[in-house]
């Protein structure tokens, strides 16, 4: 049970079953069926990984979060039916194979030097194959708001809700609380990324009505966490701030490009932006990286 909850918390790079449980509560606030399919996805991938003897990764939730997201995407596109349960199970098991394959590729030269994480790539690949063009045919009718402070605040909350394909003020607020329970550092970088991306999106959209849906900013939140709090922990704060800032802009730009395709967006913008920043960072000379305190690792 703890590993299943860790799988849910690892969506946000946190290895903490309490955080996973609180995220499930947040999802239940949006729709209990969404929470059930998310938990089923994490459980299926975790058990499958155990069966294939990926015990350590499964124990820490690293073979659970992609399945959890597959469950969430199935809830969005299919609802809660016997078909959605079957798709969640099959898709979550497929994530194991994709994860292993991508992990193998990332460990080969010349990619090995960049230490690119698999992250949510299995979820994106599997769910894109399952749902294809449905990403642009189904309107989840996210909450929106008028201009001003209300729209800005809702945009912050929805930038967290949309990461797990949910929506709403309560869901977003509970997820934010869950992150701070698991890691104040990840919580801080996540909120910072949300504020910056929401402001940028509001400026680009000339107001917060569209931005308040969170659909333009959720990938930016994940990039801020990944660069600022997880993968560049050994780098100076100034470098992490620049990297996270570049990643946020890249994620939002890639998100916009995806709107011109027939593919579901999911967290593809986050993945591409994070990988590009990590690759660029791999070319920074070691002497340019000054000694900085190494922070405790959280998630992977």
UniProtKB/TrEMBL annotation:
Subcellular location: Cell membrane
Transmembrane residue ranges: 12-28, 86-102, 114-138, 163-181, 186-203, 215-232, 239-259, 265-284
This protein's record includes keyword rRNA-binding: no
Topology within the bilayer: Multi-pass membrane protein
GO cellular component, one term: plasma membrane
One Pfam family here: UT
Family: Belongs to the urea transporter family.
Protein name: Urea transporter
């Amino acid at each position: 049970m703890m590993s299943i909850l860790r799988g849910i918390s690892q969506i946000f790079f946190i290895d903490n079953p309490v955080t996973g449980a609180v995220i499930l509560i947040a999802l239940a606030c949006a729709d209990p069926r969404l929470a059930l399919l998310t938990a089923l996805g994490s459980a299926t991938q975790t058990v499958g990984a155990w069966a294939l003897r990926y015990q350590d990764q499964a124990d820490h939730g690293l073979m659970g979060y992609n399945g959890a997201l597959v469950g969430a995407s199935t809830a969005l596109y299919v609802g809660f039916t016997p078909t959605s349960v079957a798709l969640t199970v099959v898709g979550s098991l497929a994530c194991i194979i994709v994860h292993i394959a991508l992990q193998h590729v990332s460990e080969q030269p010349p990619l090995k030097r960049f230490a690119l994480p698999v992250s949510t790539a299995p979820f994106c690949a599997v769910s894109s194959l399952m749902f294809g063009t449905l990403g642009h045919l189904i309107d989840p009718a996210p909450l929106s708001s008028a201009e001003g402070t209300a729209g800005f605040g809702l945009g912050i909350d929805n930038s967290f809700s949309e990461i797990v394909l949910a929506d709403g003020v309560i869901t977003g607020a509970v997820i934010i609380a869950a992150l701070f329970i698991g890691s104040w550092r990840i919580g801080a970088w996540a909120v910072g990324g949300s504020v910056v991306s929401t402001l940028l999106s509001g400026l680009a959209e000339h107001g917060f009505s569209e931005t308040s849906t969170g659909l333009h900013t959720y990938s930016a939140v994940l990039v801020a966490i990944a660069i600022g709090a997880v993968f560049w922990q050994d780098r100076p704060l100034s470098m992490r701030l620049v990297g996270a800032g570049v990643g946020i802009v890249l994620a939002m730009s890639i998100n916009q490009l995806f709107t011109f395709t027939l593919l579901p967006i999911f967290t593809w913008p986050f993945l591409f932006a994070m990988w590009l920043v990590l690759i660029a960072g791999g070319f920074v000379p070691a002497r340019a990286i000054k000694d900085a305190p190494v922070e405790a690792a959280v998630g992977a």
